[in-house]
Specification:
The structure is a single chain. By secondary structure, this protein is α/β, with parallel strands linked by helices. Helix content is 22%, strand content 23%. It has two domains: 184 residues, Alpha-Beta Complex (Quinone Oxidoreductase, Chain A, domain 1); 142 residues, NAD(P)-binding Rossmann-like Domain (Rossmann fold). The strands form three sheets. Strands 1, 2, 3, 5, 8 and 9 form a six-stranded antiparallel beta sheet that branches. Helix 3 packs across helix 4. Homodimer.
Length: 359
């Protein structure tokens, strides 16, 4: 369960032994959006017990990102399913497990992710992809895979580590390289952090919100470009600053016009553009096929990390270890869960990177 919800203490849930709710329908709080763009309503919902290979979590902390904004506004036609319980960035503990779950037990502290890994299919056994054949991210899915049903109910109705990995895995940024990042939200700044840790010599940040430049400098960005300050194309500015073009560019805004600028900002011959932004528009890529003879483009899902087998090592080495990723720098606001509408307002106005919601 990855949603903006929390078990009520009256349910009698206890970490570890003595779990009184296993196998039962429970009630908890959730922020439900009933129609596109409407304010979230704090509702009491019912959550079914986990079925085979499913896990029910007690969410303790959660945050929101621009993907949630897109879903909230109903901008993507395939995701206009309401009412909804949004959310895919959270931390919590295992409340109960379903049949066949062998490596988790009630009380385990976990971080749910949207991209699964079964460990057995051809994709999971391959080092060339992190998209599991059975549990890869599917943004259009609004029901459980096992039976095509939901597990959340409200008033009788259904409620339905990306940037760093992109720099390390999808681009494999090397020491001394030049990087340009288009869009300095949380994902873009995570790319900057990943590039900094890899020893990039020049990291150029591109955004029209100059308030983001202060935080960007903390994350390792060396130079900033505000497109509104120039009469020439942004890719020309970036290529001048990098003396011929950057080695790697990252498109983190979800804007196709920006994607073209990011693509053209790379160096001819070996430049690589990594697509990270969510593009709900039906518009096609703004590229001529011949342009792909000069530069390359790839897309990255979940930072190309295999979530189950690789994330623990990343946490131990880069979060707990000596060379730490600056995670605290991404949390710009903290609010109680009941103030979720304010959190969405801060994000939509460009005033927050990540607002931590405490349940």
């Amino acid at each position: 369960m990855a949603g903006f919800s929390s078990d009520d203490d009256s349910n009698g849930f206890h970490d570890g032994d003595g779990n009184k709710t296993a196998g039962k329908v429970i009630k908890c709080k959730a922020a439900v959006v009933w129609a596109p763009g409407e304010p979230f309503m704090m509702e009491e919902i019912e959550v079914e017990a986990p079925r085979r290979l499913e896990v029910r979590l007690r969410i303790l902390f959660t945050s929101i990102c621009h993907t949630d904004l897109t879903a909230w506004m109903g901008e993507n036609e395939s995701q206009r399913v309401f009412p909804r319980v949004l959310g895919h960035e959270a931390a919590g503990v295992v409340e109960s497990i379903g049949e066949g779950v062998e490596d988790l037990r009630p009380g385990d502290r976990v971080v749910p992710v949207f991209n699964g890994e079964c460990g057995d299919c051809a994709a999971c056994r391959s080092s060339k992809t992190n998209l599991c054949c059975g549990f890869a991210v599917d943004p259009n899915r609004s029901v459980m895979r096992s039976d095509g049903r939901v597990r959340f109910y409200c008033a009788g109705r259904d409620g339905v580590r990306r940037g760093v990995g992109a720099a390390w895995n999808a681009a494999n940024v090397d020491e001394g390289s030049k990087v340009a990042i288009f869009g300095l939200g949380a994902v873009g700044l995570a790319v900057a952090e990943g590039a900094r840790l890899r020893g990039a010599a020049q990291i150029i940040g591109v955004d029209i919100n100059t308030d983001k430049f202060v935080k960007g400098r903390e994350m390792g960005i060396t130079e900033f470009v505000n497109p509104q300050d120039y009469t020439k194309s942004v890719h020309e500015v970036v290529r001048e600053l990098s003396k011929g073009g950057v080695d790697y560019s990252f498109e983190c805004s979800g804007n196709l016009d920006v994607l073209r600028q990011a693509f053209l900002s790379t160096h001819k011959g070996w430049g690589l553009t990594v697509v990270l932004g969510i593009h709900p528009s039906p518009r096609m890529l703004p590229l001529h096929p011949m342009e792909l003879f000069e530069r390359k483009m790839v897309a990255s899902v979940f930072g190309d990390f295999k979530p189950k087998s690789q994330l623990p090592d990343i946490i131990n080495k880069w979060i707990i270890g000596a060379n730490k990723i600056n995670l605290d720098g991404f949390i710009t606001h903290e609010l109680p869960f009941t103030e979720i509408n304010q959190a969405f307002q801060l994000l939509s106005e460009g005033k927050a990177l990540r607002c931590l919601l405490k349940l």
